[in-house]
Amino acid sequence: MRNIISFKSLVKNYNFFLFDQWGVLHNGHKKFPKAENCLKYLKEKNKKIILISNSSMPTANSISNLKKIGFSETLYDLCITSGQIALNFIQKDIYDKYGKICFPLKLSKDKIKVFNLKCTKDIKKANFAMIADLEAGLTILDFAEDLDNMIKNNTPLLCSNPDFLVNDNNKLSMCGGTVAQLYEDMGGKVIRYGKPYEPIYRNIKKTMKITNSSKVLVIGDSLWHDIAGGNQMGFDSLWIKNGIHKTKLNKKKEIQLLLENYKPKYAIKELKL
Questions:
Q1: For the domain 2-82+195-268, what is the CATH code?
Q2: I want to staple 195 with a disulfide (CB 3.0 to 4.6 A). Which of 130, 160, 161, 229 is the partner?
């Protein structure tokens, strides 16, 4: 891993730039002006910019949120979310294989509406369960009973947001990916969409007509998701230190183990020119 102090020094080496959103471009409420300047610079250089998010909502929602925060659509060429990929594949991967009756794991009403889910509160009647973004304050204990019952009924779990944690306005909260990982560790079947899993990257490669992986740079703060996804696809990666792992930076053994496992090519404290 090579530590850099300027994003600009990498730009000439790549044609496609895949940016994570939360923790890299904004904190969920306010944009990072230095990061916005990086997008503007890439546009000046005629580079292709892709914004990729593990939000469980459709892409249109993400674009709307970016506008509210202050990011113009002219600053990027493509935006894609894990929720959009889940919507695209739910018929083939879930309904056709398991059935259409869903057990909602703390799903909000808007998620149920967006996915047009037929829900039941009786796990025995469900063909699958689904988890997405979580309300702040929830813990693993809030899911213990449901997960035990799902194991007993051999219920597959659809996870439309595989993130473990989210940094919402500088406060860390648990995401659906943490619960999904526990369920898998318990022996449950989990179907995930988003970073670091291949379907979302296949969509990007096809849409943007990417044929040379060496010309793609992934920029993200999550070693578990952004950097891992880039590695899986053969893309170089730039790790943003002041993101989701910021609190671990002073825990040298822990962060060193993560870096040995995920091996980002570059690292920078924050995204800036």
A1: 3.40.50.1000
A2: 229
